[in-house]
Amino acid sequence: MALDSNVRNENVTVINEKVADNNEIVKTRKEDNETSKIDTTSQQKNEEKEKTEADNGEEKKEEVVFVQDFGFSVRIVSPGAEPFDIQVSSMELVQEIHQLLMDREDTCHRTCFSLQLDGNTLDNFAELKNVEGLKEGSVIKVVEEPYTMREARIHVRHIRDLLKSLDTADAYNGIECNSLTFLNTITQGDILEKKKTRPESVDCTPPDYIMPNNKELPLSALQPQHKDQKLPQCVKALTTSAWNPPPGYRKIHGDLMYLYVITLEDKHFHISACPRGFYINQSTEQEFNPKAATPSHLCHSLIELLNQISPMFKRNFAFLQKKRNQRHPFERVATPYQVYTWCAPVQDHTIDAIRAEDTFSSKLGYEEHIPGQTRDWNEELQTTRELPRKTLPERLLRERAVFKVHSDFVAAATRGAMAVIDGNVMAINPGEEAKMQMFIWNNIFFSLGFDVRDHYKELGGDAAAFIAPRNDLQGVRVYSAVDLPGLYTLGTVVIDYRGYRVTAQSIIPGILEREQEQSVVYGSIDFGKTVLTHPKYLELLNKAGQQLKILPHHVLNDKDEPIQLCSSVECKGIIGNDQRHYILDLLRTFPPDVNFLILEGEELSKEVKMFGFPIEHKHKLCCLRQELIDAFVDARYMMFIKYAAFHLQQLNLRKNREILNNNEDIEEKQKREKTDEIVAANKGKNVDYENEDEKKKKEKNGNMEAEEAKKIVESMTDGSKLELEESTKNIVKTAAMAVGSLKDTEFDIRFNPDVYSPGIKHCEDLDPPLWKQRQLVKDAAEFLLTAQIPTFIRDCLDHSSAPMDGITLSEAMHARGINIRYLGKVCNLLSKIKQLEYLHNIAVGEIVLRAVKHIFTTYLQGTEMMNLAQAVAHFLNCFLYSGTVMNPLQGAEEGRNTRKRKGRRGRNNPLICQDSNEWATLLPKTLWLLIRQELKCYFDYDLITGDIDATVETFSLSKISLLRSFCLKTGVQLLLRDFNLESKNKMIFYEEDVLNIFPVVKHINPRASDAYNFYTTGQNKIQQGYLKDGYELISEALNLLNNVYGAMHPEIAQCLRMLARLNYIMGDHAEAMVYQQKAVLMSERVNGIDHPYTITEYAHLALYCFANSQISTALKLLYRARYLALLICGENHPEVALLDSNISLILHAVGEYELALRFLENALALNIKYYGSKSLKVAVTYHLVARTQSCMGNFRAALNNEKEAYVIYKQQLGDNHEKTKESSECLKHLTQQAVVLQKKMNEIYTGKNGSSLPPIQIQPPSMGSVLDMLNVINGILFVQISQEDIENFKAELEKQSLIDGKELLVDNEVDNDSKSNGATETVVDGNQN
């Protein structure tokens, strides 16, 4: 679709808006000048690859084409600054140089300028490669341009942002996409700038609160405050003047706006903005005199003017700039989505007129960068999706535009939803009841999650209305991922704020002008009574449905006519005025979950009933997840292939036998057997797949078997051998029946989302039999219980997944297709497995908090704005305080008076019910009763405890983890202080402790598909041992990710971590540290400072710092990681055992044996608990304990521990393994030492003259040996390579040679015992040297 230039410019503005600080990162990117590889297979291949989310990329071996993206340097000449050179890339836009200059120290005060090359002004939106005459060494001039009203405002805003650039207030307040990072505070400066020459003073004392088994965990340590936190002020006030706007007779003299400044010297100035810049006028507070003062100090930039009139401004601003430029770019760049922090210190609220003006003018209806115009979100979202996508550069531009518009839309929708709930937006149907009101703000449509007009009456009323937006969002997610040209979904964001659920959607052009009945051309608006269909929609949805496994089916309308659909009945198709085909109401995209539906006349299988299903849920909108559907179809396909292959082999054998002895009796017998098998297959319902363990084993042994089976089946379906045709048809038919396929002649498993929808009449004649369709839905729900949940638990048992908190637990369950409503069942299963006690505790904590969140949502709806802080504090006391909780309003005389006042106020905002102060009557006992009811009703889980103390005690939960989780789930922000959570006689929370309530936002995440393919292919290469190829592919993935997402994104953090690990394995420790530092900063910024992923990043960085001889830094990072782990999940977790092993090794290396031993003993206890007393991990820990004890001279204890290690090695690895031999040597050495010591002791006791204890001979271990041991416990395996190899390797990398390298090393990042302690180099013990 061709864009007119106007729209194009607007879109490019949109695309480039957040490139702001991106350039800085682009400059730091090593891969800048590398060439991008892309595969150019046919367009159809590309589209397929785009659609298949997880293409493993193996097909990339086709022809490779290079897109030339070369770097060169240009010289910038700016007025008032020295000329300087910058590095640019041919793919960049001129705009990016603009942004770079606005960020550089010497040019940042300019905003209104153009760039000129040989006297010609450059187009902001041109790519550099298209600029005529631009080459290496070209000189680009910065030319000051005249201001307009808009430019003057942008300039003042930019100056305000510069003066506030080091202020953390925005991050704490959750605005402007700012977020926190503490890495450089913890390491006391940038680790890359610590000089190698200066030996670090090693201060290794851990803070008391992170010591093993310490009970008190202070919250204040979560956000360590800088010593030099107070930054100098530059001016006392800089505001727009009250004389604005300029009167008509001044406008024609060029006055654009007036500013008012009070300098630190306490001088007051009124400043005029005109096209030529800024000057001082003669106005005062009382008198308007816009004529220029003498001297007028006319300057093009406001900063230059302020420098002239205030010496203190000049000094302090220079200091501020220096400080700002010392910060890592990743500390300053905006994140794509807002990250909120759940606690914050007391903030000073400063005067800021520009912020105030923003709040009351531009922010309410308009976006900043297009003043006076609201953005047409729908047009932007759809236009970016229509951009071409045939070649890699086109796809990159398209994905970047899609991502940029989407993140802007999420930000606008969030602001709008808050405005709606805060009563700041007028409803479009103001006469209706508050819950039924709808709103439009900034071209976004907002509706509330209540059951309006009994729409969901049959499905569960308000409970269904609350869940529908989330289901709808899942539908939008999968259709967006399919990304079918011609099929459009609405921009959708679901926001939970102050107890209300708000759905924000972009608006279909023309929909507001007509009734819904007239607009809908496909689907039903009354749950299936009247149903419409449309050929174009059928074609589009059928294409999409093939990937989503949705079955085209017929339903009967009220006239009993069959109507064909390729989606659920509720899915509506509306053709907008822009002639695009939109689909909406995708809440039933996937089949229903029959385990949570009470269906008349339907029997569930024996296995499902054993689990206690079916359960009646609060609503009837429970659907299965896409991940489950995919896993189920894959499992059935494998079953189909194996079944058919087996019978085909039998058939071939039989044919051969027939030729030998043409005996008809045998044939008869076999026919009978075959029919028996068909009957058995249908009766016993898939014996193969129920025995999941067996299948696992088969799959492990038999990837070959599966491959062979596929070959056999493919040859069979060729149909070239005519005589086989009839029998093979029978075999396929049998196999198809065995797996429940909808067609007899081939494998066809798809789902009809409407099979159990109430009130829908199905058409039996035109579709596969209804019982078959229903059986598939029941089988999929059974598969979740009998296959997916056991697989999830097995993942946790072999430690390939170890969730640390509710968020990571939910992710792990979702990845297996398990809905959170199964968490109760998962808890019950986990409670039976001793080794997974930690996970059981996390799961119980999560399930309790989810119940608390449900109750809190309703609780907030009954609270008036004025009482919000008090109500939240009261609720938290009822939840976490074990003493007596008083009614916060009782006895307060003032409370009674305000009650009358409040009654009057409440009517102003219709959303706020008249607050009867019911919230104040909540008691802990009532709350815990509600929690238990909610757990039973929603999760079918029986909580055995009835108050906070018993719950915390029984499930080893920590109150601080519960508090953190509660705040993250509900958006509450608390004051950062050390709450006394164990208090029994003094309330824990007061209204002053509740600082804010943030929205909790759910939205889709557009993907960078090419980057994803490069990344997964790179991972596969690494697993095969081709490190160099893997490194190149992942570097390329990083390039593409930066291209699509800009500088900040969780996927980029993951990519950086991978590159750091690869560099480390290849021996480049310094480079590993550079990459990992970026990964930590980025994870803190985009995931959160206390997210489990951030802990992992810290632990990796500690290892690389140690490898770079930054020992005390490594310890500080590990202490931080352990603190965060304690905050998130408490002491009982395998991850804590790993951190403790790391800490103790480094403490051992610096001779702090007693401290090392405390951490080691804790690690040993945890490892025995979670890996079993005979695991190799435990053997290594025993060995480390023995090593430390021998260093302390405690040889007897050391001997006992080394014996334990020896026994495990002998059992697991046999007598001849090097580990067993090594342990045996160690035992001899320790025995020797112990004997010598005992002799001397005896001599002292018998009173021999001159006998004294010999000094214990301890040589501290070498740093190399400690690093080797660290690698062992962190599961990094090395194959020995020489320095020379590394140098050659690097040289090859730089040459970008395409020759396959040898298998150099293997990175086996697994926690798998046998691997993590197997083939490593011999570790030299300190005390054996």
From TrEMBL:
<feature type="compositionally biased region" description="Basic and acidic residues">
    <location>
        <begin position="45"/>
        <end position="60"/>
    </location>
</feature>
<feature type="region of interest" description="Disordered">
    <location>
        <begin position="25"/>
        <end position="60"/>
    </location>
</feature>
<comment type="similarity">
    <text>Belongs to the CLU family.</text>
</comment>
<dbReference type="InterPro" id="IPR011990">
    <property type="entry name" value="TPR-like_helical_dom_sf"/>
</dbReference>
<dbReference type="Pfam" id="PF15044">
    <property type="entry name" value="CLU_N"/>
</dbReference>
<dbReference type="Pfam" id="PF13374">
    <property type="entry name" value="TPR_10"/>
</dbReference>
<feature type="compositionally biased region" description="Polar residues">
    <location>
        <begin position="1315"/>
        <end position="1329"/>
    </location>
</feature>
<dbReference type="Pfam" id="PF12807">
    <property type="entry name" value="eIF3_p135"/>
</dbReference>
<feature type="compositionally biased region" description="Basic and acidic residues">
    <location>
        <begin position="25"/>
        <end position="37"/>
    </location>
</feature>
<feature type="domain" description="Clu">
    <location>
        <begin position="355"/>
        <end position="597"/>
    </location>
</feature>
<keyword id="KW-0175">Coiled coil</keyword>
<dbReference type="InterPro" id="IPR025697">
    <property type="entry name" value="CLU_dom"/>
</dbReference>
<dbReference type="InterPro" id="IPR023231">
    <property type="entry name" value="GSKIP_dom_sf"/>
</dbReference>
<dbReference type="GO" id="GO:0048312">
    <property type="term" value="P:intracellular distribution of mitochondria"/>
</dbReference>
<dbReference type="InterPro" id="IPR033646">
    <property type="entry name" value="CLU-central"/>
</dbReference>
<protein>
    <recommendedName>
        <fullName>Clustered mitochondria protein homolog</fullName>
    </recommendedName>
</protein>
<dbReference type="GO" id="GO:0005737">
    <property type="term" value="C:cytoplasm"/>
</dbReference>
<dbReference type="Pfam" id="PF13236">
    <property type="entry name" value="CLU"/>
</dbReference>
<feature type="region of interest" description="Disordered">
    <location>
        <begin position="1309"/>
        <end position="1329"/>
    </location>
</feature>
<keyword id="KW-0694">RNA-binding</keyword>
<dbReference type="GO" id="GO:0007005">
    <property type="term" value="P:mitochondrion organization"/>
</dbReference>
<dbReference type="Pfam" id="PF13424">
    <property type="entry name" value="TPR_12"/>
</dbReference>
<keyword id="KW-0963">Cytoplasm</keyword>
<dbReference type="InterPro" id="IPR027523">
    <property type="entry name" value="CLU_prot"/>
</dbReference>
<dbReference type="GO" id="GO:0003729">
    <property type="term" value="F:mRNA binding"/>
</dbReference>
<comment type="function">
    <text>mRNA-binding protein involved in proper cytoplasmic distribution of mitochondria.</text>
</comment>
<dbReference type="InterPro" id="IPR028275">
    <property type="entry name" value="CLU_N"/>
</dbReference>
<feature type="coiled-coil region">
    <location>
        <begin position="656"/>
        <end position="709"/>
    </location>
</feature>
